[in-house]
């Protein structure tokens, strides 16, 4: 069983040097049989509220830069804010009712890391696909 380590114990560094506590993001250790180096889960509402507050501080930075320092995984992760918001918007429209985005951090065969959306769901059978609309978007994306 993997232990969940919440990013609240980590900081985001943005210029000018400021430390921000992140809500709505969890880093999990993958199973030993997995090719993943780490798993990231983002709660759309909690992280979105944090992101709105981050931008409200008028930090002159187009990126959110994360330093992940866990015993099983150390890395720097950068999210381009505008592109990430576009990704969340599209994800919300295509996945109505979802509250979490799950991302695997994998290692390329040639070396280096890449992020991949994890779309695995338990009991996916017999669930009718809901119609997508803007009502499925998190509140922070609507305003």
Give the helix/strand layout.
Elements: E1 4-6, E2 12-14, E3 18-20, E4 25-28, E5 36-43, H1 44-56, E6 63-70, E7 73-80, H2 81-94, E8 100-107, E9 113-117, H3 139-142
Antiparallel strand pairs: 1-4, 2-3, 4-5, 5-8, 6-7, 8-9
Taking Cα atoms only, what radius of gyration do you get, to the nearest Å? 16 Å
Succession of helices and strands: EEEEEHEEHEEH
Subunit organisation of the chains? single chain
How many β-strands, per DSSP? 9
- Measured between the Cα atoms of the first and last residue, the distance is 39 Å
* Count of runs of 4 or more consecutive helical residues: 3
Uncertain stretches:
1-17
Q: Major sheet: size, sense and barrel closure? A: 5 strands, antiparallel
- As a percent range, the share of strand residues is 25-35%
Structural category is alpha+beta
| Average of pLDDT | 77
Which percent range fits the helix content? 10-25%
Notes on the structure:
The protein is of the alpha+beta class. The chain has three helices and nine strands. The N terminus is likely disordered.
